[in-house]
Design goal:
Elements lengths: L1 H7 L5 H7 L1 H7 L8 H13 L3 E6 L7 H20 L4 E5 L10 H17 L4 E3 L7 H12 L5 E6 L5 H10 L4 E4 L14 H16 L5 E4 L3 H13 L7 E6 L4 H9 L4 E7 L4 H10 L1 H11 L2 H7 L2
Parallel strand pairs: 1-2, 1-8, 2-3, 3-4, 4-5, 5-6, 6-7, 7-8
Helix pairs in contact: 1-12, 5-6, 8-9, 9-10, 12-13
Length: 310
């Protein structure tokens, strides 16, 4: 099921059909704040009211022309302005293929530097999301180049990749802030750990390296076992609560988010928005069986749901 959903997330034929479907759009709103920046800003405001931080992500990947890349960069700059105007506790996450990485590394770096410089002028932060493994090397190299000029940029490491530990060490050497996640793309077994137990073990290993580094990182997970491992390591090593943050996705495991906040930990909620929500939505369905069940239940007419209820 996971493999199928991840393959479907890349389908150029299915995407427009799903995005026009009213039921799909309604269900996607559980995981996506909306299609407009105002929707994301309101979601960030609600997150802040719940004593949580936010990271806004304008959904979109693999732009096909320079005009699209420059348009995305301008939109991100405008998002930072709106965050500042509304005094929100939020930063921004973005993908390099949205800034033209497929077209030109020079163009992509130019636009990323423009965004990071604007964010720095507002004392804000840019997180460069990690995409599929075909982009990992270029993403790491580009982030390191920009990080040499600007301190307010960081990236993401995916624990299912064999190469992740070496990448973490290289990025820590230049003082880079990292979000650690498990990984949400379909990767071959010669690139990524195929077994969940091995991914979990690597996640815990990398979490310990990151939190021991003294740099402020994000531990991104909804897995109670990974959260427990993090909390145990923090307690055993007397790491202060303000030296790192947990990160979770909008609409997923809000109970865990709220509990961590009550326990005094920092939690940042990743808030995606935009019209290009289909690939992100499908990756969320692939992550947990409960998400698929939620989607299928909403596809059924309400009368059928009542008839199926004993």
């Amino acid at each position: 099921m996971r493999t199928l959903l991840l393959r479907l997330s890349e389908s150029k034929r299915l995407a427009p059909l799903m995005m026009r479907n009213g039921v799909s759009r309604r269900v996607a709103r559980r995981f996506v704040a909306g299609e407009k920046v105002d929707d994301a800003l309101e979601a960030a405001r609600e997150v802040n009211r719940a004593l949580q931080l936010a990271s806004l992500d304008l959904l979109g990947e693999n732009v096909s022309d320079e005009a699209g890349a420059r348009r995305a960069a301008d939109e991100y700059i405008a998002i930072f302005d709106r965050i500042a105007q509304q005094h929100l506790d939020a930063n921004v996450s973005l993908k390099l293929t949205q800034l033209g990485l497929d077209l030109s590394e020079e163009l992509c770096q130019e636009l990323l530097e423009k965004i990071v410089a604007h964010a720095a002028s507002q004392s804000n932060f840019v997180r460069v999301d990690m995409e599929g493994s075909a982009y990992t090397q270029r993403t790491v190299e580009l982030v390191k180049r920009v990080r040499s000029e600007y301190a307010n940029v960081g990236t993401v490491m995916q624990a299912y990749l064999y190469r992740a530990e070496q990448d973490v060490q290289d990025l820590l050497a230049v003082g880079c802030r990292i979000r650690l996640c498990k990984g949400a793309y379909q990767e071959p077994p010669d690139v990524a750990f195929p077994k969940k137990a091995d991914v979990d073990a690597n996640y815990v290993k990398l979490m310990r390296i990151l939190l021991a580094s003294g740099i402020y990182h994000g531990i991104a997970t909804h897995d109670p076992a990974m959260i427990r491992a993090t909390l145990d390591f923090v307690r055993e090593n007397d790491i202060k609560h303000d030296r790192f943050e947990f990160q979770m996705l909008y609409g997923i495991r809000t109970d865990l988010q709220q509990k961590l906040v009550r326990d005094g930990y920092r939690v940042r909620v990743y808030i995606p928005f935009g019209v290009d929500w289909f690939p992100y939505f499908m990756r969320r369905l692939a992550e947990r069986p409960a998400n698929v069940t939620f989607f299928l239940r909403n596809l059924l007419p309400r009368s059928s749901q009542r008839a199926a209820t004993p």
